[in-house]
Each structure stands twice: as structure tokens, then as C-alpha cells.
């Protein structure tokens, strides 16, 4: 998969991919919360050279596979529906050689989403000032079934 994708266009691909992982439901999509910007910054500042190369290779190969499957040639034209089966195959291990960073990318999307202020305060169970410690309480009673904000 020798397709070259200019770096600036990888951003629009990343924006679509984060919505493949976490699309809009009753909660905002990952791109609505700028998770793609978080991942881009995290990759540039925190990943080593090898992981950055794997990240770029994964984005390039995801686009190349989507181009073949859809007969499209522009990244901005690729849709969630076209990228979802390719990303799913990559995460389940079927294409892990060509898409070495796919599983880590999925994990970063979920992590970035959960760390977002809106999700932490409005979607997850949130206590700005911790109160009483209840070690064995029922989750449904304590948080209405929601996970605790990190």
C-alpha cells in the first residue's frame, strides 16, 4: 500500500475515523468533542518515532483500503460507512500487519472521549467534591448505572 497522503489531509481522515469508533448517538460524536485534535496532539507530543510511523502507516493504509473498496479518490469523500468495516477488520486482528496502530488508535479515541470535560461531567457519574466512601454500594443506586468520571 504505497499511497502517499499529505499530512494535512490525514487530519480529515482522523476526524472521520474517530466517528467510526464513537459516532453520534444520544451523546456527541468523538469529532464533536475534538477527540481527533487530542489524538493528533498526543501523537505529536507523546509517541516515539516508531509509534508515530505506525500511526501514519495505519492512516495511509486505512485510506488506501477505503479507496479500493469505494472507488473514491479523495479522503474528504470517505464516509464512516466506508471506513467502519476496514477499521473493524484491523482491530479484530485480520489486518494488523498493514494497520499496526489500529487497535491503539481505537483505544486513544475512547480514552480521549472519556477524558473530555463534557463527557466527564455530563455523561459519566461525576462528583466534583468527593463525598462519603461507599465501598460495596449498588452501582445503579449510586450512579444510575453510569461509570465514574476519571
Instruction: Measure the end-to-end span.
Output: 39 Å
Task: Quote the beta fraction.
Answer: under 5%
- Largest sheet composition: none
The H/E string reads HHHHHHH
How many β strands by DSSP? 0
Bin the helical content. 55-70%
Average of the residue pLDDT scores: 84
Contiguous runs where pLDDT drops below 50 for at least 5 residues: 1-8
- SS summary, helix count: 7
Tell me, briefly, the overall form. elongated
Give the radius of gyration: 18 Å
Overview of this protein structure:
- With 150 residues, the protein is mainly alpha-helical.
- Helix content is 57%, strand content 0%.
- The protein contains seven helices and no strands.
- The longest helix is centred in the middle third of the chain and has 22 residues, at 49-70.
- It starts with 6 loop residues before the first helix and ends in a 7-residue tail after the last helix.
- Mean pLDDT is 84; it is low at 1-8.
SSE diagram, text form:
Elements: H1 7-21, H2 35-46, H3 49-70, H4 80-91, H5 102-114, H6 117-123, H7 139-143
Helix pairs in contact: 1-2, 1-4, 2-5, 3-4
What key phrases describe this protein's structure?
mainly alpha, 7 helices, 150 residues
Amino acid at each position: 500500500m504505497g499511497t502517499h497522503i499529505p499530512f494535512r489531509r490525514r487530519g480529515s481522515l482522523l476526524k472521520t475515523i474517530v466517528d467510526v469508533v464513537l459516532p453520534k448517538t444520544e451523546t456527541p460524536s468523538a469529532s464533536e468533542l475534538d477527540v481527533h485534535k487530542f489524538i493528533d496532539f498526543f501523537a505529536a507530543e507523546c509517541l516515539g518515532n516508531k509509534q508515530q510511523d505506525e500511526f501514519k502507516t495505519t492512516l495511509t493504509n486505512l485510506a488506501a483500503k477505503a479507496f479500493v473498496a469505494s472507488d473514491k479518490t479523495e479522503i474528504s469523500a470517505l464516509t464512516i460507512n466506508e471506513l467502519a468495516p476496514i477499521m473493524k477488520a484491523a482491530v479484530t486482528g485480520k489486518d494488523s500487519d498493514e494497520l499496526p496502530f489500529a487497535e491503539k488508535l481505537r483505544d486513544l479515541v475512547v480514552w480521549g472521549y472519556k477524558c473530555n470535560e463534557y463527557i466527564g461531567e455530563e455523561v459519566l457519574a461525576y462528583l466534583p467534591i468527593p463525598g462519603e466512601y461507599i465501598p460495596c454500594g449498588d452501582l445503579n443506586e449510586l450512579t444510575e448505572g453510569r461509570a465514574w468520571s476519571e
